[in-house]
Fold N-acetylgalactosamine-6-sulfatase.
Amino acid sequence: MGWGDLGAFGEPSKETPNLDQMASEGMLFLDFYTANPLCSPSRAALLTGRLPVRNGFYTTNAHARNAYTPQDIVGGIPDSELLLPELLKKAGYINKIIGKWHLGHRPQFHPLKHGFDEWFGSPNCHFGPFDNRALPNIPVYRDWEMIGRYYEDFKIDLKTGEANLTQIYLQEALDFISKQQASQQPFFLYWAIDATHAPVYASKHFLGTSQRGLYGDAVREIDDSIGKILKHLQKLGISENTFVFFTSDNGAALISAPKEGGSNGRFLCGKQTTFEGGMREPAIAWWPGHIPAGGVSHQLGNVMDLFTTSLSLAGLQPPGDRQIDGIDLLPAILQGKLIDRPIFYYRGNEMMAVRVGLYKAHYWTWSNSWEEYSKGIDFCPGQNVSGVTTHTQEEHTTLPLLFHLGRDPGEKYPLSFASDEYQRAMERIAVVVQQHKVTMVPGEPQLNVCDKAVMNWSPPGCEKLGKCLKPPKSDPKKCFWPH
Amino acid sequence: MGWGDLGAFGEPSKETPNLDQMASEGMLFLDFYTANPLCSPSRAALLTGRLPVRNGFYTTNAHARNAYTPQDIVGGIPDSELLLPELLKKAGYINKIIGKWHLGHRPQFHPLKHGFDEWFGSPNCHFGPFDNRALPNIPVYRDWEMIGRYYEDFKIDLKTGEANLTQIYLQEALDFISKQQASQQPFFLYWAIDATHAPVYASKHFLGTSQRGLYGDAVREIDDSIGKILKHLQKLGISENTFVFFTSDNGAALISAPKEGGSNGRFLCGKQTTFEGGMREPAIAWWPGHIPAGGVSHQLGNVMDLFTTSLSLAGLQPPGDRQIDGIDLLPAILQGKLIDRPIFYYRGNEMMAVRVGLYKAHYWTWSNSWEEYSKGIDFCPGQNVSGVTTHTQEEHTTLPLLFHLGRDPGEKYPLSFASDEYQRAMERIAVVVQQHKVTMVPGEPQLNVCDKAVMNWSPPGCEKLGKCLKPPKSDPKKCFWPH
């Protein structure tokens, strides 16, 4: 989902009454970011409070490449990383993940080995259907074991776009919340649904109901579900005791447009890129009785902050033995403070850009290669900013391209290198970047090696279901990441 | 000002608290249009309820050209046109225009000859400063006579961007409202301020206060002023008896970006074009006690509807002796009805496109000429949709380019000509267009002839001020309209 997909963020169909209401009862973040313009690294960053380049969710197979956890990935979240649910356990929290995990699907990466107490969902994207020969269909887990596979036991009709998954995930959420409330148990629910990822789906009740087509149907179903979750918290009388945050893991995937693509508003490009369209996210904080209703924040925020902020809410400190990139947003959320902090825009192993205040400096620009582009793979459809949305990797490390995101949110007009404004801004930014670079210790890259043998052939529990498949011979290779 | 310039429409700086509040207390129109992507024709359409091609605010000097009323224009609003204030007089209204008139500056076109009782403002744009030899500075009128000129008696500092004009216009508005309330006089106030037109200005108090630079300062001052006007109505106890509508005359002028250019959100291109960015406008209706608070409407609306709607509010009928294009929006505003009606997108003498429901069919596409474009004149900066944002006039009358504005608000993905959806939609649209074309009787074009002798050399009242200038010899010529 992208920044522009909600009514509160200016989507012209304004079809998200529940999220818009959530914003009007809570706080809208206009300058909130992901840590990476792709799913797996973004989610790893959210749960570790650390940039993907630290927590290992990146590749060194080539320069500045997006990488994630497809079925043949060998790596995953390292044991050395401390995840939010692991830490929350110390404060007595019960932790559940519903939906897409995406931090590795091999046994050692299982979410219940990393602090979660319960899991309902899937380790990978819902791509498919597969033939279970070249590729197995993606398993759906309940806790330790698989209970079926997408397209087999969990239907997704690619022709009609119908799938009941969001409803199933919603029910799981409501049940989990009810259970914790009944036992007066503090809980952390990570509701990480697959929708609106392509192939886009919605349940029958929502199909054909949006002005925006199937993608809009999916957005409407999410909106409706979140409304139901918030109402459930209120009905149970725990809304004033429950902090809720809504955001997305990357900008809308414009390559899927118009049929399955969302909106990044007026921002440049989309998912896969380090332009604003790829990394600025819709974000809403909700906590009745604590967050002043109708608040709007320009605090530069990041999904990694949810790690630190959640710990703070639980009365815990972030680990002191490692660099944590996420900050505690509570002063911004509860007292309206503005905390000075930079945003780093990474693509794989490269810091592509940095935002300090309203300035954003690009040290590297790239959309994707000419080769891909000529095949119709376009991360910036209809947009073309000369020298900015480049189809070769352009280095600007000695003279970064500088944009003022207040006057020019669309990153169309780089400031003149000769201007005083450029000089002044870059002096400040250079210090921030210098400090970031000298203290940067990259983690062991997890997204370098692929092997068809590690795919979801025989997940735990497959025997009971008669759904075990025979893996091919192991043949580890460098993963190929085209962009 | 463009669709995307208000917080309520997703401007990322969200700096328009008063307009956003006006929307939350009233009704937000998401699908509201101007009748032309340029100032004069748009304003003529608003005041006559008729398309510019009917009321004469267009040119036949060349095909599909934007034209307006610069100082050397010979034409203006014809006497045969019936303007809103003329008609409102019949219901006892006192009518005032504050700000830019733009329907012709020669004596016969004076607003007080066309139904207004009072005028404070100027007949043309605030371009300048001029040397009073090749070009006179633009006069500012109070009622029948000029009281000074821009850049002379009404300062605009192009270096700092400082000008007090919006404050002056605000005070005029507040005073006029107070006076009418005191005498319990029904009134129509057309508050047609110059800001945010380039050269962009703001008063000292607002300069440097916006994230968005000078343009944002101007938007903030407008926002603040409208807040003050609404509060004034409330303070005087007449808010439940006063219908207020906020909109703009064309999309944001992207050629002025980034320093002086606004935002059309995610829509394509800007002012001068018949893409959504040129013609879809921010729009808010406000009438406490009558319009349900927080309303959102997808009614296809047009500035011409303000003519018919205002008459309806005053208990009057639109004239029956001519084609009126504006419709009465009250059923949409008060009862939330959706009235089926098309939107026509004209550029000069050509119907470029039509919107019916969520479909928009382009019969002609053009941004501007290659010649202009090569000189850096760009109405679609950073945007380029192949075959759509064309730099030659492309005719599609036999096979219109069709877009679904729900799935594709950015007009990036024309529907396949072979699709069932295309066939079905075009069948419906063809009927609408056919009916429109066969009943179209174009008015006498007013924007064809230019003559330096007719400029604002010696406006009425100039003698008293010693500000009369000597006109050159009359030399009428065809006006040149490049785009």
